[in-house]
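Marked as duplicate of an earlier ticket. Keeping the data here for the record.
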Amino acid sequence: MILLIQLSNRVGCQLFVNGDSALNHLVDLWIIIMIATALVCFLVGELTRNYSQVDKVWSLMPIVYSCVTLAAYHLSPRILLMTLLVTIWGIRLSYNFYRKGGYNIIPWKGEEDYRWGVVRQNPMLRKPWSKTLFNLLFISFYQHVVIFLFSTPLLFAAKYSEIRLTELDYLAAFFMFLFIMIETVADNQLHMFHLQKSLKTSLKGIYADSLSNGFLSEGLWNYVRHPNYTAEQAIWISFYFFGASASGQIINWTLVGPVLLVLLFIGSTELTERISMYKYPGYENYKRQVPKFIPLIFKSLKEGKLL
C-alpha cells in the first residue's frame, strides 16, 4: 500500500506541481484518501459479499475532496462555490440511496444493487479468485479512480486559486444546479413508481400505463430511458468547466473524469437494459421508441409528449 501511495503521489504531483507546496500536500492527501477508501470498500465487500460498498460512498467522496480542498484554499470563491454545489449534489443523492435501502445502521450492511448478482453469474467470474480480482480492480479501485478524476477540477481551481470568477463559472454553476434539479425530479418519479408498484395500485392514476408494463415509461422517462443517469453525467460535465475557467484551458486533462464517467454509465445501462428486456416483454419496443440519454426534443414536441 505504501508503494502504491508513493507511486500515485509522484504521478499526481507531476500533473499539478507548480511550486505550491500546499497544493502538492493537497494532492497527496487526495490520493491517500482515495486508496484508503478503496481498500476499505474492497475488504468489506469481500467479507460481506455485498459489492455495493462503493455505491455507499459514491455520493460522499466528492464532498470529502471538496471539503479538504476548501480547508486548504478557504479564501477561494470558486472553490467555495464548487464545494456548495457538490455538497447539495451529495446530500440529495445520499438521501435517494438511503430511501432505496442502500444504507443500514450497521455500515457494512444495506441492500446490494441487484445488478451485482447478475454480474456474478458471468462465466468469467465463476471462480472465487476471479470474483476477488474483479472486486479489487473494477468495483473498488476503478470506480474510486473515476470519482477521483471527475472531482479533479477542484485541484485545477486550487492551482489557479488567484484567478477570479468568470462568466464561465456562473454558467457552469447554473447548469450544474439545473441538472441536480432534473435528477431530483427523475429520482422522485422513479421512487413514486416503485412505491406504487410495491402497493400494486396506481395512486390517482399516476403511472398507470407504466405499472401495467412493469417499468417506468412516463414523466421524464417519456423523453429518455434514463433521465437520472443523463442528469448525473451532465452534472459532472458542467463541473469540469470550473477547472477550465480557472486555468483558462477549455480543453484540459481533467476532461478524462467525465469521459470515464460517461463510459461507465454506458456499460451500466447496457446491463440494466438487458435485465429489463428479459423481465418485461414491452421493454424492447420502448427501447426502440425512446432514446437512451439524449432526448429528441423536436420529435417529442411534434408528438405532443408531456411530463
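See parent ticket for discussion. Residues 1-104+123-161 form one domain.
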